[in-house]
Amino acid sequence: MATDKTAYLEDLSRCVRCGTCKANCPTFEGDPLEPMGTRGRLILLQGLLRGEIKPSRLLNERIFSCILCGACSGTCPLGVDIPEAIYRGRALLSGGDKKRRFLRPIAKWSSRRPDLAFRALRLGERLVLPFLAKRGIIPFSPELPEVPLRKTEQVFKAHKKKGRVAVFVGCSINYVFPHMGESLINVLQKIGYEVVLPQGETCCGAPLRSLGLEKEAEELARKNYRVFSRLKVDAILSLCPTCTLSLKTEYPKMIGKGLDRVMDISVFLNDKLGAVDKIYRTSYYHDPCHLSYGLGVTQEPREIIRKAGLDLVGADEQGCCGFGGLYCLSFKDISSNLLQKRTEKITGTAADTVVTSCPGCVLQLSRTITDRPVLHLIELIEEAYCYRGEKPEKKEKDPQKEPTLF
Ligand code: SF4
Ligand code: SF4
User: Fold this and answer.
1) Does residue 66 have its Cβ closer than 6 Å to ligand 1?
2) pLDDT by residue (tens digit) across 203-219?
3) Residue 38 CA, closest ligand 2 atom number
4) How many other CB atoms are found less than 10 A from the CB of residue 80?
5) What would you measure as the largest C-alpha separation in the chain, in angstroms?
């Protein structure tokens, strides 16, 4: 693939520097310097490819400061695939990138041994993580569950089976928000779908790719492709738009084949859910970048929120929350500024609930929005369709018990 990659990056020479692509670039909006925006980064990458610019600390900063939100995806009139060009550029620069030199081996190690990494984090949860957060080394200290969602292959039966779906759980659901995965299983069983969580799923590879670790990310992509392509299922669902985007549209660029049947839960569930009695709440919907810009899914979550009995208020504008996975560790200031902007926008509305479709956005927005609940869409769906708006308090999870929800 190395030659292909170089060829791909050379596609950059099609860029005529019109600047259309930087119109919605959040890093440019925060710091209106040309190299902090889409066009500037592409010009730098062209210079690098032609040998006019040498790799340097500053060049790395410019290329790695892109949050990979995808707001520039599909905006180029000449068809330059901009996020892809940035990924390729990072792969070229990663060898000499000192700022993230510790992050790379940690990311590589933990993507290969995620259960062990989770146990290590759990050990450090009380002391190490709060200490690192206090020192500003990490932006926040996440609360971790006792046990992850996935174990070996798990199959959850449905009473009146209409079909069978697989779930690509993803790292953030598995290790940070397993209750969201349980909610998804609960909803799917309730509407008649058998659910399979296959053995062998691994990280989707997006965090490694964002660090320029192409080869390692491709290895993970091949593993996931092997596991999920053999399944006889109607659809592969994910609660994380970054995972969905990777499996569906990034894998074909990385390994030459993707998983067509993978989709966001809102796309799968929208026509299967009817309108419920009003539960009288208002909601703000935050569009996750990879779902809206990357996958073009904006209407389905809104339709589901309305059907679930909520009034949507002030949810027409898109904007990055600043999470970006490992980005919030590398560029804490930019990440915090973006978060601040979204927070002001959201808290300025009368919404009493904030709903989004991405576990990363939930994690990030919950840092600053503390006066009202920040929910993943699946939590709202479960509440409305399984508990008629009165979801019981979550009990502490029993590590011995499978997440059977009926
Ligand atoms: S992916 Fe987002 S941050 Fe990166 S260049 Fe495009 S718009 Fe800007
Ligand atoms: S829109 Fe396309 S041609 Fe215009 S600056 Fe961006 S990449 Fe170049």
Assistant:
1) yes
2) 999 999 999 999 999 99
3) 6
4) 19
5) 65
Residue 404 confidence (pLDDT): 30
Q: In this predicted model, what pLDDT tens digit does every residue of 265-285 receive, in sequence order?
A: 999 999 999 888 777 789 999
How many whole angstroms separate alpha carbon 357 and alpha carbon 244?
12
Ligand 2 atom closest to Cα of residue 16: 3
* 330, two tokens: 């590398």
> Can you tell me which atom of ligand 1 is nearest the CA of 70?
1
Question: Measured from the CB, is residue 328 less than 6 Å from ligand 1?
Answer: no
Task: Read off the pLDDT of each residue in 134-150 and give the average, rounded to a whole number.
Answer: 78
Ligand closest to 38 (CA) is 1
Cα of 253 from ligand 2 centre, angstroms = 20
Over the chain, what is the mean pLDDT? 88
Residue 289 has pLDDT above 90, yes or no: yes
Map out the domains of the chain as residue ranges: 2-96, 154-270, 274-386
Ligand 2 is surrounded, with C-beta below 6 A, by 15-21, 38-39, 42, 75-76, 78, 80, 82
Q: Is CATH 3.30.70.100 what the domain over 154-270 is classified as, yes or no? A: no
Indicate if 274-386 has the same CATH topology as 154-270. Answer: yes
Ligand 1 lined by 321 (C-beta under 6 Å): no
Judged against a pLDDT cut of 70, whether residue 356 lies above it is answered with yes
Q: What is the pLDDT of residues 315-332, one digit of tens each?
A: 777 899 999 888 888 888
Give me ligand 2 centre to Cα 79, in Å.
8
Closest residue to atom 6 of ligand 2, CA basis: 21
What residue's CA is closest to ligand 1, atom 3?
A: 66
Beta carbon of 89 within 6 Å of any ligand 1 atom: no
Q: Tell me which ligand sits closest to the C-alpha of residue 289.
A: 1
Pick the CATH number of 2-96 from 1.10.1060.10, 1.10.260.40, 2.40.50.140, 3.90.79.20: 1.10.1060.10
What is 262-323 written as a DSSP string? Answer: EEEHHHHHGGG--PPPP--EEEEEEPPHIIIIIT---HHHHHHHHHTTEEE-S-------S-
Q: Looking at the domain covering 274-386, what would its CATH class be? A: alpha beta
